Amino acid sequence: MNKYLQCGRFRLPITGENARPLVMGILNVTPDSFSDGSDHNQLNFLLDRAEAMINAGVDIIDIGGESTRPGAQPVSLETELQRVMPIIYALQDCGIPLSIDTYKPEVMREAQIAGVDMINDVHGFRAKGALDVVAQGDCALCIMHMQNTPQTMQDQPLYDDVLTEVSDFFAERINQIQLHNIAKNRLLLDVGFGFGKSLPHNLTLLQNQKLFSERFSLPVLAGLSRKSMLGAITGKPVELRMAASIGAALTAVVNGAHIVRVHDVAETIDALKIWTASNNKSDSALAE
């Protein structure tokens, strides 16, 4: 595995003595996100949330303008651009890598021009023209697995062997990406918890994060924050899933994830600092 993830203007340590679990903070610019969407998505509100993440020590900020919760309806290109571009431009010099959560090649293009450092695609860069857009430049590319679409993905998801099928999907996407001469040190993988998976599928994937990083020699991102699988286990509604989300993030890291995508940034960072210290990791994590 490469020592660093090439992430636009940044190189993020993945292995070696300077490496530690990285925290990606979620910044939704949507009124209908399943867990934190609201009508309070004005620029000043978003900047305040981003500033709080930065002060807490976030490693990456992931900006999303279209909800991908189960049953979510797609939004137009114009709407998505109107939502995400102002906050990207406002944060472009904040000193933290910026990620855009999108599957639309046109949004990828505009976001790259505005200076994002990562593109996080729930469709795994399968849209026509997506790979042509991202081939130029050095943004990190997060390849996520999803069975079907947000509108249908939780309608009785079915696999013969979820580990094999998700792994085969990654193999096919990595092959296509490398045909576009995209450097492997720009790639990371996300199994897509809750994106066309039942609770047993999700738990199997959670237990086997290292399987994917070892097979492909790539870092793995885990996004479990506040998801319905946590509600199914704890019986808690989405607004009461912070503790479960932190527990899930720690579990993902223990099982091999390199990056966790979370809503509760400060709390997750504190938990990871304790885990890092207790496992004799770099003392620098405690000084940050």
UniProtKB/TrEMBL annotation:
Reactions listed under catalytic activity: (7,8-dihydropterin-6-yl)methyl diphosphate + 4-aminobenzoate = 7,8-dihydropteroate + diphosphate
Gene Ontology biological process: folic acid biosynthetic process; tetrahydrofolate biosynthetic process
> Which residue ranges does the record assign to the Pterin-binding domain?
21-273
SUPFAM superfamilies, alphabetized: Dihydropteroate synthetase-like (SSF51717)
State the Gene Ontology terms under molecular function.
dihydropteroate synthase activity; metal ion binding
Q: What is this protein called?
A: Dihydropteroate synthase
Q: Which family does it belong to?
A: Belongs to the DHPS family.
The superkingdom of the source organism is Bacteria
EC category: transferase
Q: Which UniProt keywords apply?
A: Folate biosynthesis, Magnesium, Metal-binding, Transferase
- What is this protein's function? Catalyzes the condensation of para-aminobenzoate (pABA) with 6-hydroxymethyl-7,8-dihydropterin diphosphate (DHPt-PP) to form 7,8-dihydropteroate (H2Pte), the immediate precursor of folate derivatives.
**EC number(s) recorded for this UniProt protein:** 2.5.1.15
One GO cellular component assignment for this chain's record is: cytosol
Task: State the needed cofactors, names only.
Answer: Mg(2+)
Kindly give the InterPro entries that the UniProt entry links to this protein.
Answer: DHP_synth-like, DHP_synth_dom, Dihydropteroate_synth-like_sf, Pterin-binding_dom
Matching PANTHER family? FOLATE SYNTHESIS PROTEINS (PTHR20941), FOLIC ACID SYNTHESIS PROTEIN FOL1 (PTHR20941:SF1)
The opening ranks of the lineage are: Bacteria, Pseudomonadati, Pseudomonadota, Betaproteobacteria, Burkholderiales
- Pathway listed for it? Cofactor biosynthesis; tetrahydrofolate biosynthesis; 7,8-dihydrofolate from 2-amino-4-hydroxy-6-hydroxymethyl-7,8-dihydropteridine diphosphate and 4-aminobenzoate: step 1/2
